[in-house]
Each structure stands twice: as structure tokens, then as C-alpha cells.
Design brief:
With 334 residues, the protein is mainly alpha-helical. The protein is built from 15 helices and two strands. It has a two-stranded antiparallel sheet. Strand 1 and strand 2 form a beta hairpin. The longest helix has 27 residues. It is globular.
Length: 334
């Protein structure tokens, strides 16, 4: 009971789950069934939790709701199945893994998974255009049957998911500052453009707009210090409060006046992961420190955290320990 209350307080304080791995055991059961009982699958969707723009603005969101090792293994298995349902599910798993790769800083892998997801959705769309493949006159969600042909539903879902995969590709460009001339004319697209401008064009108005959109009380003082170019004050507050600066520091690459003090902080004052935490909070600490180091130009810390993130990624993608890691992290302190 006390452990559950501690998790809830942390979620309420940070306005996102932070180090808390919200494993979705219902979704996990469905994914395990896809792997173990392929002939019984009646599901079309895996209820995506994170949105494409979360890669930039809330990259921890939903990362571990399905253990990465399980998602990777099932996505590989689904690649061999020649039906729209399997390809839709495979693409959704791949997009979730792209979020994890982006968070860990492995942008090439994130882009490759996004391309594979787009190809899976395109394959589902092509299957749905073939009336011979309409193997089910109904589609199912959470055990309820709906009166629409499987092909019609697959075509509609494939179209929506292809758009989401394209949005994810845009978000990846905004995250690492890759050259890009335009973003979608949606509210999410405009916010991604702001992030891209703030980190690549030294646009103070974009950074100010990002500060205004951040409603987290914990970050408001950090933004005030950052916009005032008070590097010493910002580093001191981060260190005294034991904060990782996520959502603020990672957007400050274009503020060179802050770099010296933040460089000292990311080298010597960055908060450590707790010694009794599970692997997910450790992954969070390494990934966030890598982003902070890259933003402030601390190349030595970037190299150190890159090596650690790659070792951890290999561990997270192991199928044999995926479920035990999820259980251990659920039972670990927040």
C-alpha cells in the first residue's frame, strides 16, 4: 500500500510518470497470446498510449507498458504472417520500440523501426484491398464483435496508422535537430516545429513558446532561469532539488551562455539512479543524462552515456528476461 501511494505521489508531482514504469498487464497478456497462440488472435489494436510528439515533449510516456524484449520478439514473429491483422499489430509494436530507441538516443534504430512500421501498415492496407483475404466478417476489440468487415476496418486503421507513423518520423527529426523544412499544419506539428527551431536556429521566441506550453510546476522556475541565461542559478537549482531537468535542459543547445555551468552539473551533479531501483529507472537516468550532455556539449559524458545506453538497450530487448524485468521493476521503489 505504501509503495503504491509513493508511486501515485510521484506521478502527481511530475505530471507524468517519470521513473514509474506503468506496465499494462492486460496489453502484455494480449501480446503474449499473439506469440504463443497465433491462431486464436482476434485483436486489431494494442491501444497506443504515447503520441508521436511525446518523443520530444514527454519521451518517457508509455515506454515500458509492454516489455521491450517481448514487443521486439513478437514484432519479429508477426513479420512472417501474411494477413492485415498481424501487420497492423506488428506496426504498432514497432512504433512503440521506435519511441524507446529515440529515448535511449539511438536515432538510426528509431528511424529504421518507423520505416518498418510504415511498411507494415502499407502491407495491411494492400491485404485489406483483396476481398479474398476478408477472413472475418466482424472485427473484435476487448472481446466485443462489431458489424463491419475485417477488410473495411483494416483499411481504415491502416490509413490512420500510416499517418501516425509519418508524424513519428517528423517528431524524430524535431528531437535530434535533423534538417527539415516543414512540419504538419496541426497543433502537434506546430509544437514540433517550435522544438526544432529552438534547438537548431537559436530562436529565442521558440524557446519562450516552449516554456509557456510546459505546465509542470516543477519546471517553471527552471524555465525562468534558463530564459534569463542564469546558468549558475539553473545548475544550483537542479543540483539542490535532485532534478534531471528533463523537458528543459534538453532544449537548451542554442543557449551557449548556459553551457559551462550546465556542463559542470551534468558531469558532477547529475542525480544518480537509486541503488534499489529496477532497470527501467536506470534506463531513464542514463537516457536523460545523455540528452542533457548532448544539449550542453559535454562530449565526454555523451560518450560515456552512449556506451551505457547501448548496453542497456541490448539487455532490454532480450526476450528471455523481458517479463521478469517488468515484474522486478513494478516491485522496485519509484
Amino acid at each position: 500500500m505504501a509503495h503504491g501511494e509513493a508511486r501515485k505521489k510521484l506521478v502527481d508531482r511530475y505530471d507524468y510518470w517519470g521513473t514509474v514504469p506503468l506496465a499494462d498487464w492486460r496489453a502484455i497478456t494480449r501480446v503474449v497470446a499473439l506469440e504463443e497462440l497465433p491462431g486464436t488472435n482476434r485483436a486489431w489494436d494494442l491501444d497506443a498510449y504515447a503520441q508521436p510528439e511525446d518523443v520530444v515533449f514527454d519521451p518517457r510516456k508509455g515506454l515500458y507498458r509492454i516489455p521491450p524484449g517481448l514487443a521486439d520478439a513478437v514484432a519479429t514473429a508477426l513479420a512472417a504472417r501474411d494477413d492485415a491483422r498481424s501487420q497492423l499489430l506488428r506496426g504498432q509494436l514497432l512504433m512503440g520500440l521506435a519511441h524507446l530507441d529515440a529515448y535511449l538516443g539511438e536515432m538510426a534504430d528509431a528511424r529504421a523501426r518507423t520505416r518498418d512500421a510504415l511498411a507494415a501498415f502499407l502491407g495491411a492496407s494492400l491485404h485489406a484491398a483483396d476481398p479474398v483475404r476478408d477472413d472475418d466478417a466482424r472485427y473484435y476489440d476487448y472481446g466485443y464483435a462489431y458489424g463491419q468487415s475485417g477488410n473495411a476496418y483494416a483499411a481504415r486503421r491502416a490509413k490512420g496508422l500510416m499517418a501516425r507513423a509519418s508524424e513519428l518520423a517528423s517528431a524524430l527529426d524535431a528531437r535530434d535537430g535533423s534538417p527539415r523544412t516543414e512540419f504538419d499544419a496541426t497543433s502537434a506539428g506546430r509544437e514540433l516545429e517550435l522544438a526544432h527551431r529552438a534547438t537548431t536556429q537559436k530562436d529565442p521566441t521558440a524557446l519562450e513558446a516552449l516554456a509557456r506550453r510546459d505546465s509542470r510546476e516543477l519546471n517553471r522556475k527552471l524555465w525562468d532561469l534558463a530564459l534569463g541565461d542564469d546558468g549558475a542559478g539553473l545548475a544550483t537549482r537542479l543540483e539542490e532539488r535532485g532534478l534531471d531537468g528533463r523537458g528543459v535542459v534538453d532544449f537548451l543547445a542554442a543557449r551557449p551562455a548556459l553551457a559551462p555551468e550546465l556542463g559542470r552539473w551534468v558531469r558532477y551533479g547529475y542525480p544518480m539512479a537509486c541503488t534499489t531501483c529496477g532497470i527501467y529507472p536506470l534506463a531513464n537516468q542514463i537516457a536523460s543524462r545523455r540528452d542533457a550532455a548532448r544539449a550542453v556539449g559535454a562530449k565526454d559524458v555523451t560518450g560515456e552515456t552512449t556506451a551505457a545506453a547501448r548496453r542497456l538497450r541490448a539487455l532490454l530487448l532480450r526476450r528471455d528476461i523481458a517479463i521478469p524485468l517488468a515484474v522486478i521493476s513494478e516491485l522496485s521503489p519509484p
